UniProtKB/TrEMBL annotation, chains A, B:
Record keyword Manganese present: no
HAMAP family assigned to the protein according to its UniProt record, in alphabetical order: PurK
Gene Ontology cellular component annotations, sorted alphabetically: cytosol
Physiological role: Catalyzes the ATP-dependent conversion of 5-aminoimidazole ribonucleotide (AIR) and HCO(3)- to N5-carboxyaminoimidazole ribonucleotide (N5-CAIR).
Residues involved in ATP binding: K107, K149, E180, R181, M182, I183, E188, N267, E268
Protein name: N5-carboxyaminoimidazole ribonucleotide synthase
Domain of life: Bacteria
GO biological process, one term: 'de novo' IMP biosynthetic process
Keywords of the record: ATP-binding, Decarboxylase, Ligase, Lyase, Nucleotide-binding, Purine biosynthesis
Amino acid sequence: MQFFSSDFKLGILGGGQLGKMMLYETRKWDIYTKVMDASADAPCKIACNEFVQGSLMDFDAVYQFGQDVDVLTIEIENVNIDALEKLEHEGKKVYPPTKTLRTIQNKATQKLFYTDHEIPTAPFTRFAYTSEIEDSIHNGGLQLPFVWKSAQFGYDGQGVKVVRKIEDLQGLPNVECIAERMIDFKNELAVIVARNTKGEVVTYPVVEMEFHPEANQVEYVICPARIDPKVAEKARDIALKVSEHMKHIGLLAVEMFQTKEDQILVNEVAPRPHNSGHYSIEASYTNQFEQHIRAILGLPLGKTESKVAGVMVNLVGAEGHTGDVVYQNMEQILEMEGVTPHIYGKRQTRPFRKMGHVTIVDEDMAHAREVAQKVKETIKVISE
Amino acid sequence: MQFFSSDFKLGILGGGQLGKMMLYETRKWDIYTKVMDASADAPCKIACNEFVQGSLMDFDAVYQFGQDVDVLTIEIENVNIDALEKLEHEGKKVYPPTKTLRTIQNKATQKLFYTDHEIPTAPFTRFAYTSEIEDSIHNGGLQLPFVWKSAQFGYDGQGVKVVRKIEDLQGLPNVECIAERMIDFKNELAVIVARNTKGEVVTYPVVEMEFHPEANQVEYVICPARIDPKVAEKARDIALKVSEHMKHIGLLAVEMFQTKEDQILVNEVAPRPHNSGHYSIEASYTNQFEQHIRAILGLPLGKTESKVAGVMVNLVGAEGHTGDVVYQNMEQILEMEGVTPHIYGKRQTRPFRKMGHVTIVDEDMAHAREVAQKVKETIKVISE
């Protein structure tokens, strides 16, 4: 098979932590890889076979990179799609396909996609410019409060703001955006769907994002979600419907809200390995990174069931710390059973920067969840 | 902690498959690594931070390499111990310690170690030269048949021969050697013991090497061994006794025979990650490579229990094939559930060369064993 020989080259756009974890799998199968990232210090720089420094948003850089590989994939969506499209037209295998990326990259387009395909999602209005919103509120077309989201480049929580009163609009960029109804949800769930080049599809179990009661920030990703099996089935069905219409190749992580009335609403999707699937490295028969590689290379998809219960805790930079990173109390968490830290290898920490994650696995979910809390209370990502 | 910062450097002597799998763990924890290997195509070359080409048996190369790292470990025993000893005397942390390596590197010394410490092992006689053996047979000091083993450099089955009649001695090198009584064993077992710099010790479950009924070659490594729990306990106790006296730091893989009378006899040991522990990547809470890193860095040792049953199949080069390697029917084995191939990344295959391994995991051991057989019957390592 060509992938397992030396005349095949896999290209990965983006050299961050997701790419780094993907590289464990390409190394395991001795697949030749070439990675491009804007940073010379990218976590992927070692462990890939070739590294190129270049901007993922630059047409020429992406186009040139793509010409030198056999299959091209991404670890981040913010890439130059025009270049990918040209490569695709020239016959290059680009996974996810650019059509999927175009739908996802613009949040207004993504929301319209859901309504077009009768996929439940929070009601929203699209605006060509933020400045149009105030009029719409005044003439009764839009109710406060709502969630303002810029249509483009909303990666990692930027470009999102809760608007409770008109003054909250001040300072927002005057760009294409959506105003989305605030959902009073009881759970945030996610399902990872894998789809290979031959159309085979599998789903991972539904996971639950547990929020901090006050900070309103995801604290734990829990697999399987501690929800009614019927709700889980509904979430899986909806994720499969999104996948079917999205016609992605590779993974699709579908984030959803479970409302107080047990409705499932799709929030957003990512066409790649995802934070909500990191638990799979330790807990699943086939981890999400291996699954992505299987999918884009047209290999049979692996078993998505879990061996044991898994809980994932993100390691983010502590507030008040900027500079050379130190992982405080690492030894203490290594003393706890079933605990695996992953350090992404970013040299500099800053408040809330994703610096790593810790997976806790156990036969007993309640015990894993308890240990996860201890981990979270123990380890600190600070500067020297 | 120093290991998780950029001013710590771990040195690994040997850049083969064991080193490669160790590097997944150093990458996971972002530990800076420097590797030396004689081959410019060593599987470790990518994924380590620094690679040096050099002979592991060369005093100057090893000494110079060691001076540039903070902790020095090995992935193969055949290294220049004099250089390691000098480094150790100068205060360098060398794990396993050279004393352990000296005991192990010479098979006669290793056997004497067992008898000195009342560790059960097959009876043997040491000879300064192979040429002395014939006399010993003639004057009744040694009975045929026996297993001839050269004292030095017996790695990977070389330097071992079953001697059934005097003529079998012809062609053997005239070197220091042992003649060991042939053991009529019903199982070959192994236990991996981890011991960290602080003296903490843990053991992995007893594994069983299942032999091909005719070829007398290990076909499967099975965890846990399908043996009487009392025999397993005895094997673990003996492995712990070897570990205690060996005073190794890091892993010690203890290979043993279970005789027809359920006696346990130590065969040989390896002071590093071992083929008999590869199953742990997919099956154990803490895989053997992470455990070795924990041990040599003085970190708390991880949980050695298994999440699921594991069976490992070695991928060796097929007979009659020498040249650029091809993994035939890879796709078919990826279709089977719970199957994870590991391809070491050696470009050239030759008969019986270790080219990779496949782990099969399942909740049910009998099912894992069945799938393992299918894997073995399906995949072929051939040349182009």
